[in-house]
Amino acid sequence: MKKNAPLILGGLILLVILILIVFPDRLSHLNPYGTQGVKSWVENSKFIMSAPPFAPGPGSPLGTDDQGRDVLSLIIYGTKLTMLMSVLVVMGRYLVAIPLGLLAGFGSYVAKTILSQFSIIFSAIPALIFSIIILKMDFFLALDKTQSILAFVLVLTFVGWAKLATIVMERVRDILSKPFIKAEQAIGKGKLRIALENVLPHIVPELVVLFFMEIAGALNMIMQLGVFGAFVGNLRYVASTEGGVITFLNISFEPEWSSMLATSRNYITSAPWMVLFPALAFFISILGFNLFGEGLREILQKRDSRFSVYFRRLFNLHKSIIPFLKRLRIKGKVTLVVLVLALLVGEIALNNYQANLPRFDVQSAGVDLPDFAKGVLIGTPEAAEAADYIAQSLKAVGFESIEGENLVRDYPTETIYREMTSSITCIDQGGQGKTLTPGKDYSIGSFGNLTLSGPVYDARQSGLFSVSMETLTDQFVLVDSSLYSSSAISNVTKKILVESKAKGVLIMLAPGQSLPESFGSESYSGVKVWLTPASADLVTGKNFTVSLQSEKLGNQGKNIIGVLPATDSKQGKEAIVIGIGYNYLPEDQEIGQQRIKFGLELAKKLSEENHNRKLILCFWDGTLSDTYHGVKAFAANPILSPQDIQLYIDLTQISTPQGEFVYFNAVQAPATRSFAFSFGHQLEKNLSDKNLKTRPYSKIRRIEDILYYGASPEETMFYKGSIATVMVGLGQEQQPGKISLNDLGNVVWDTIRKNSY
Known about the structure:
With 757 residues, this protein is an alpha/beta fold. It has 4 domains: 5-54 and 70-230 and 282-315, MetI-like fold; 319-350; 400-413 and 556-754, Aminopeptidase; 417-552, Glucose Oxidase, domain 1, CATH 3.50.30.30. Helices cover 46% and strands 17% of the residues. The protein is built from 23 helices and 23 strands. The strands form 5 sheets. Strands 6, 7, 8, 9, 10, 11, 12, 13 and 14 form a 9-stranded mixed β-sheet that branches. An 8-stranded mixed β-sheet has the order 5-15-17-16-18-22-20-21, sandwiched between helices. A hairpin with a 6-residue loop joins strand 3 (234-240) and strand 4 (247-252). The longest helix is centred in the first third of the chain and has 37 residues, at 191-227. The radius of gyration is 36 Å and the shape is elongated.
């Protein structure tokens, strides 16, 4: 038996293409989006620097492009998009060409006119020139990936369908001239039945062959467009604004073969591998589709080919199925209907089951987490025990230490105190008293064991720095924090409590400001108290009595920092930092425990897959205090260069296990930080796709306020550490909502693991 060499060779090439499409990550461990800048090394006592493109070598067998991206990875990952475009173009042409070709073949005047006009137009204007003119317009160059693919498909369909329709029309006319068609007409068949039962079965073998030939033609057109700078995934950089004229530089962003050709034209002499290898990929693919089509032609157009017979039977299935259904008795018909309904119900149930599978399950993590009923506060034995537990849990799922073996990293603090018990009473001149509620009306800002009583001196309307210290003797001084910066309030409070004989300083919070937690390092003979605006008005003009009992804590914070190594050799130095707090008060035990479990479940999920960049998961200590917050210790002494940290994901604002809304803020991930900017937009889109209501986190302030008042923990990474930050959390206003920690975890986890850029 004679072997069909074109079919075998073409089939092998198509099989390789299919493998590249399905298993790109198995064939290349490098990220096609990963860039590489300047290389430097010492050779013969000389310091040498080299910029991309880099020639083929051990790390990149086919070299890199001008952005330092691996050419082999671009070709492998670009196979899917290149083939998808060519197949969509051919499908679009077939959808237009077959109906119009059939109509024209059967004598439709409208169809013949449309077909002839298109043929005339594109015989006068080459399809390539027309496509270049359209696709090089600024409108098309500015489209995103999906829109750009659609534009390419529509344009290439528009310029190429007429040729295919002409072939269909000519074959239909040839078949209609055969004697057996007259016989079909004589027995009363209409044009539609003749087209479906007699004409189509005869032209289908040729259409199948042409399908593969057309894919080769579409690939050829896409390749030529690439040479002229029209491609999918166009990224426009501003190259120059000289003379007030903006000049753009078009750069290939998506892995796609024609874009590789487009951006490598200027390197044909200096870096020929940039042109040669994508061109070779096009050549082999076009050859493969043409060979496979020729091999099919040899099989399908043989005289003894049964393909037309089998295809005709597809249109005659109803002739055997309908009589069978008619012969069924009522019991059989009912059984058939029940089976169909059962299949439909089963399919719906399976889809619902798969959709509702708990991929992210907070309750499955930290099942043996101690209760810590006293809360977890920085400097306490509970904090040390919690830190050890979290570190062991991270190690168990594969997280490593950045240096040494211990994931717990201590950072120094001052000696810290916390309030154990306190009471405040204010009595007016008539002897009527009012007791304030801790945590609601006030919080303690300095610590010790004392009981003090005296009148309140209202300094809110006077210049505090001009007040004589003697005036404040044996009085509580009431000041307005909205009139001063945080550092000024701190300095003047310390000055009054150290240099005067005042019994205390009462600080009225600015509107919208929350009461600080009652722990810190300040200790005086007097007392420092934070009051809400309503409480400040209440104590004015009254006798003020405060009683306080405090506990001394440790002077060290404990951050837990675990690292998942990267798998991409180029991007392995880059890192994503994820931060979450593990401190909580006794009254917040439920959400405190849930927050720790959330972080441990995220760690487990992230450890189940490989990642291009390092993932650094941090559990911060001291999150109940702006002063001792662990993120400030990290920003002051980062474990990596800020240039290597591409993004910080702040998860510290998870304040409820069932939220009404998701806190989201990406203003600290500007467009100049491309990775963080892309991630922030993708995360916001994913939250929207899952119908999770978002609310801006309003505590991120303007730059002038940050410079004046100082950076809060939410602003520290960006303004102190120069690390782009995306903040996401879970909150509620009045009552628990419908958004669970699992809902939030699924979105955050998916966005991290699927983010390629």
